[in-house]
Amino acid sequence: MGSNPEINRFWLEGQPYYIDVIYMLLPRLLPLLALGLATAGLGSAAPMILDHAQTPRSAARPHQFGFNLAIMKQIADHGMDWSHSFVREATQRMQPRMIRWPGGSTSNNYLWREESYAEAVGDITGWVPGHVNAFIASGKKLGLQVFIDYCNEFGITPIYVYNSFEGDGQDLVDFVQHVEDLGGQVPYLEFANEPYWDPRSLNDVGPYLEMTRPLAAALKAFRPQTQIGICFAPHGNQANYEKIWNKPLMEAPYFDAVVHHEYHGKQGLGLEQTAKLTVQGFTHPEPILDQMATSLAAEASGFPVWLTEYNIGWDHLPQFAYTGAHGMYIASVFAWLNEHGDQFPIANYHQFYQDGFGTILIDDETREEHYTVSFYIWKLLGEVSRDATHVRPLPTGTIDLRVMVYESPDALSYLIINKSGTERDFIFEYHGDRLEGEWSGQQFTYPDLETKIPYDTDLTDPIAGEGAELQVPGYSISILRRDRP
Prior knowledge:
alpha/beta, Immunoglobulin-like, TIM Barrel, eight-stranded parallel β-barrel, seven-stranded antiparallel sheet, 25 strands, about 25% strand
């Protein structure tokens, strides 16, 4: 597909992203044009009408509210695990529905029988060997029983990453049985983490196929209900992963889903896209996500996609972490995923615990506990979607506004993302009739898109009212709940 640098500059700087923005935006622009014509005489100050019945609804996907929670370094350095009071407190407040274990990159070295790790030989990440070796030297255990108890207590669905490089079919069956003996379940399982950069299958899908085919056969014979995900490689890379990695995986599928990771901006391995994102591009990730969905739909032949890692990339953390732009990115991606739940039923934000990426952290030196600003955004997103059975997007006529409606048996909950600095007025309707009655909610307002928000700064305010009207400030993320008419 061709690329227009002048158009793409709105989203990206530096290397072309090889997306045709106009082509991707046409499906979004046509309904917005119709909405604009319908409201042409109202004037710029007229309230925007949000009618609950304007668009089709789809089933809510609770496993899109998922996270990586890898804390091996904290276990090694400080003896902290999933039973730690701060992890439990944050979990209770945020209420994630899915956790990925034992994490990402280090999973390819995890040895479940020892609850420790094999040495990372030939690793190219630059950081995995340090973490793995430190954990081995500590003599500590990762704590599978503690993690299972944690999931059971908080009603969290686990998704496991199995070290396909170290085990065989019998070892995998033994692992699943071991989890069940400890009181857990293995409903979802990935074969390795990003094996395309692991030295044992670097840029060569052959070893990965040879490892995982017999693993899948053994697991399905033992627990056919366990869903298996295999790892797709990134798009747009100079190694042409679409051809040399993803295509061979699809020639004779032996799995239930494909696994994809999406980092906006370079992630540091030279594998993901290397374009430099603008602030405007980072707060409007939808075109890039649309392109991702289109490519994956073609490559994966209709298989569901587990987006088990996504976030800003390493190279952009200094610019965007803890800013309003990052908050808008998080909320926008979550809303987009909710709109595309059939294709992306599972999504895990990277990650729950970590400075820069994460929602909470503990200072290595002072041991002070901190919530990052993204924690408060995820708390809002969790509350607005928690008991939803269905979800639907509402057209707004502008890329600066995203509105989602979450339906439960007795209530309608709204998520309103205002990415502009201009306050907006809304009137809520249901099948053309104004919604009356009381409503309540919360509103998180950033001062701008680029200021970094200090740790433990909750900019959320309660909101409440009666009737059909609502005003939201600029650079805000709002949620509200009202009884169903």
